[in-house]
Specification:
The protein has two domains: 3-280, Aspartate Aminotransferase, domain 2; 286-419, Aspartate Aminotransferase, domain 1, CATH 3.90.1150.10. The chain is built from 17 helices and twelve strands. The protein has helices spanning 3-9, 35-42, 57-70, 81-90, 107-119, 133-139, 162-171, 184-187, 231-234, 245-249, 253-266, 272-283, 285-304, 323-329, 345-355, 385-390, 407-419, and strands at residues 74-78, 98-102, 123-127, 144-150, 176-179, 197-201, 215-219, 309-313, 337-342, 360-361, 371-373, 397-401. The longest helix is centred in the last third of the chain and has 20 residues, at 285-304. It binds pyridoxal-5'-phosphate (PLP). Residues 80-82, 106, 108-109, 150, 154, 179, 181-182, 201, 203-204, 213, 215 line the site of pyridoxal-5'-phosphate.
């Protein structure tokens, strides 16, 4: 099946007389006939549902669908995008380890890396999204265990050179983790360019209707965890009677380990109803993304010609530094998110936002309805001035998430609000 059809049919196939739509299996637990059967489930020698923190049939269907869309061997849904990023790293790193991340990533992820993971003894080095080979090499340490980046960065709209970073990571036997939230697998599939693990905040375009927080980790199945750097994958796990992940689960070692160790112990799971809502969103992902992209291209053109606008970041614009990378990684479109600054800095930006009539001011992005946000006073307010600037977030920057309304209504609203600045 092609991508659009997979969005509808992967993960759940009703048999004769069964529900056409994905059933919500609203149960914490599952019944068995013998202690022997349950023991096999606990030893991981047999597959089956036994407790919804670890796996649930509705969530499982959505995991299979997302894995198919990204071209991975398996996926693990989480309670939020933050949980997905956290688990994706904790599955590889522990106290005393280090990783390298692009500095152009979501503000919440910067906080997670720089503050919370640091408290756990895991250190990060942020490097420029466009770092040279030498700068990347300089960030390496003997205890470096992973590399991280974001396909289209929130909110700065930089494009991440996945293939180049993957080559760097692999040269040093490290996996590359890519946050593919803004692109979605419809616009870009990072595994095709060498990424090893993909994470998403499904809260954004995959759901798309602002209904359900969620995240997902997807495993390409291609990274060699037996290269000597990752003993947790190759040595027996005594909490499962000596299971060895690479030996017992082969190419699914990473995603199985994330589920049976980290989801078991940390518990940030998605609910059956949440997964149902995310699935509902994914069914229409390609149609929505086409419209988001076309509307955003038109809005970016409009803003770039407006006398009250200082700068516009959207990769399809003439002169955008990421035009070439976008042509390679995002040939169908660059999503609905645009970053721009109005002339007059912070104050004019606030005036603009307060003057909008249709577009909503809210802490969200990638929704069917057009919405705006001022990162420096909201999502990124916990970052210092230096961190803001290092991440490319100007104090007057506005993040505009273009929805799927009629394009004339969107432009009319922006135009009348700009007239107020
Ligand atoms: C929103 C977002 C996250 C965090 O996801 P939540 O679902 O809000 O926890 C991570 N990465 C990116 C790129 C995001 O936009």
């Amino acid at each position: 099946m092609k991508f659009e059809s997979k969005c509808l049919y992967e993960g759940y196939t009703p048999k004769n007389g069964e529900a056409q739509t994905l059933p919500i299996v609203q149960s914490t637990t599952f019944k068995y006939e013998s202690t022997e059967q349950v023991a096999k489930l606990f030893d991981l020698t047999e597959n089956g549902f036994f407790y919804s923190r670890l796996a649930n049939p509705t969530v499982d269907a959505v995991e299979k669908k997302i894995a198919a869309l990204e071209g991975g061997v398996g996926a693990l849904c989480t309670a939020s995008g933050q949980a997905a990023s956290t688990l994706s790293l904790l599955n590889i790193l522990g106290s005393g380890d280090h990783f390298i991340s692009s500095a152009s990533i979501y503000g919440g992820t910067v906080n997670l890396f720089a503050v919370t993971l640091k408290k756990l003894g895991i250190e990060v080095t942020f490097v420029d999204n466009d770092a040279t080979e030498e700068e990347l090499e300089a960030a390496l340490r003997p205890n470096t265990k992973a590399v991280f980046g974001e396909t289209i960065s929130n909110p700065t709209i930089c494009v991440f050179d996945i293939e180049r970073w993957a080559n760097f990571a692999h040269k040093h036997n490290l996996p590359l983790i890519v946050d593919n939230t803004f692109a979605t697998p419809y616009l870009c599939r990072p595994f095709e360019f060498g990424a090893d693990i993909v994470v998403h905040s499904t809260t954004k375009y995959l759901d798309g209707h602002a209904l359900q927080t969620g995240g997902v980790i997807v495993d390409s199945g291609k990274f060699d965890w037996t290269n000597g750097n990752y003993p947790e994958f190759t040595e027996p796990d005594e909490s499962y009677h000596g299971v060895v992940y690479t030996k017992d689960f082969g190419e699914s070692a990473y995603i199985v380990k994330a589920r049976v160790q980290l989801m078991r112990d940390l518990g940030a799971c998605q609910s059956a109803f949440g997964a149902f809502l995310i699935n509902q969103g994914i069914e229409t992902l390609p149609v929505r993304m086409d419209r988001h992209c076309r509307n955003a291209e038109a809005v970016a053109e409009f803003l770039s010609k407006h006398p009250k606008v200082e700068s516009v970041a959207y990769p399809t614009l003439e002169g955008n530094p990421y035009k070439e990378l976008a042509a390679k990684y995002l040939p169908i479109g660059c999503s609905g998110v645009i970053a721009f600054t109005v002339k007059g800095g912070r104050e004019a930006g606030a005036k603009f936002i307060d003057s909008l009539k249709m577009a909503s001011l809210l802490v969200h992005v990638a929704d069917i309805r057009t919405c705006v946000l001022h990162p420096a006073s909201s999502t990124h307010r916990q970052l210092t001035e230096e961190q803001l600037i290092a991440g490319g977030v100007a104090p007057g920057l506005i993040r505009l998430s273009v929805g799927i309304e009629n394009i004339d209504d969107i432009i009319e609203d922006l135009d009348q609000a700009l007239a107020q600045c």
